[in-house]
Design goal:
10-stranded mixed sheet; globular; 2 domains; 2-enoyl-CoA Hydratase, Chain A, domain 1; alpha/beta
Length: 297
C-alpha cells in the first residue's frame, strides 16, 4: 500500500472519530442541556463547597452558594421534573427561594443538603421537597422568618438608630442604607432591597414613608410565606422556623451568640417530616459550623 493511501486512511479515521464525538455531544446537550456552570456570589460561609450551579449528571443538579435571582434562574434552566437538587447554601433572597421552592414542589424535585442549608434555604427550598435528605454531617438551620415576634418593631428600631430619614421619598436609597446598616432584620437578613421594593409595590401602597414601607413589606412577605406553606400542604412548616425563638429558647435566641438553631432528626420526624440521612449515621457535631447554632429539642 503506497504512503499517500495510508495517510488518507488515517485522515479518514480521524475525521470519523471527530464526527462520532460531536454526535455524542449533540445527543447529550439535546437531552440534558448544555453543561452550564455559573459563579455564585460568595456567602459568609467561606468553606461551603465551590460556589456553582451546574448539572452533575442525568438526574442531579448542584446549587452551592447564595440564593439570588440569577442563581435561581440558572438552577431552573437546568432542573427537570424528578431531578435531585444537591444544595449547600447560607440562604439569601426569600422571594427567589420561594420561586425555586414552588418549582421543587410542583416537579417532585428531591433536595439533598451538603454541609449547610440555612435561612431561606431551609424555610422554602428544603421544606418544599417531597424527598428530603441530609448528608451525615449536614445541618438544616432555621432562624425565624417573616412572622417572628417583634420583627417589624426591631427592624424600624434598627433603622431609626442609624438616623435614617424616615420621610425619604428615595425608597431604593433608604433600603440600601438600611440593609448596609442592619441587614434589615437582625441576623436573619430576611429582607433585601429587591424584595422590599417588589413587595412594596405589589402591596398597592403609594406611601413612601420608610416605616410604612417596611410594614407593608413585612406584611406582604408574611402573606407570601403563609400562602406557600398552605400550597404545599405543610402544617409543621408554619412552626419549624420559629420554635427555636420562643418559650425556653427565647433567652438563647436573644443572646445574639448564635446565627440560628437546628433540630435533631428525631425531632424533625416528630413534627411529621420524612427525612433521610445519606452517608452513614447523622453526626452534626462533625459539621465545622456547629458552634454557630444551638439545638432545639
Amino acid at each position: 500500500m503506497s504512503l499517500p493511501i495510508k495517510i488518507l486512511m488515517w485522515i479518514a479515521l480521524i475525521v470519523l472519530v471527530v464526527v462520532l464525538s460531536l454526535g455524542s455531544l449533540i445527543v447529550y446537550v439535546t437531552h440534558y442541556g448544555a453543561p452550564i456552570e455559573h459563579d455564585i456570589t460568595p456567602t459568609e460561609h467561606d468553606k461551603i463547597p465551590t460556589k456553582t450551579v451546574s448539572r452533575l449528571g442525568p438526574s442531579e443538579v448542584r446549587f452551592y452558594g447564595d440564593i439570588t435571582p440569577e442563581n435561581v434562574d440558572n438552577a431552573l434552566s437546568l432542573l427537570k421534573p424528578g431531578d435531585t437538587l444537591v444544595i449547600s447554601s447560607g440562604g439569601g433572597n426569600g422571594v427567589e427561594a420561594l420561586r425555586l421552592g414552588k418549582y421543587i414542589h410542583a416537579n417532585q424535585i428531591s433536595v439533598e443538603v451538603k454541609v449547610l442549608c440555612l435561612s431561606s434555604c431551609a424555610n422554602y427550598i428544603f421544606l418544599a421537597s417531597p424527598r428530603k435528605v441530609l448528608y451525615s454531617d449536614a445541618l438544616l438551620v432555621f432562624h425565624g422568618g417573616m412572622k417572628q415576634k417583634g420583627l417589624e418593631e426591631e427592624t424600624i428600631k434598627k433603622l431609626r438608630s442609624k438616623k435614617l430619614n424616615s420621610n425619604t421619598s428615595d425608597i431604593d436609597a433608604a433600603s440600601k442604607e438600611g440593609k448596609q446598616a442592619t441587614s434589615y432584620v437582625r441576623k436573619a437578613g430576611a429582607l433585601t432591597p429587591d424584595e422590599c421594593r417588589f413587595n412594596h409595590y405589589s402591596s398597592g401602597t403609594s406611601n413612601n414613608n420608610l416605616e410604612s414601607f417596611i410594614t407593608a413589606c413585612i406584611g406582604a412577605m408574611s402573606d407570601l410565606e403563609t400562602e406557600f406553606y398552605n400550597s404545599i400542604d405543610c402544617s409543621y412548616c408554619h412552626e419549624l422556623p420559629y420554635h427555636g425563638q420562643r418559650g425556653i429558647y427565647e433567652k438563647e435566641w436573644k443572646s445574639m451568640k448564635y446565627e440560628g438553631f437546628y433540630y435533631s432528626i428525631a425531632k424533625l420526624k416528630s413534627y411529621g417530616m420524612d427525612v433521610e440521612v445519606k452517608g452513614g449515621e447523622w453526626a452534626p457535631k462533625k459539621n465545622e459550623y456547629i458552634e454557630k447554632f444551638y439545638e432545639v429539642f
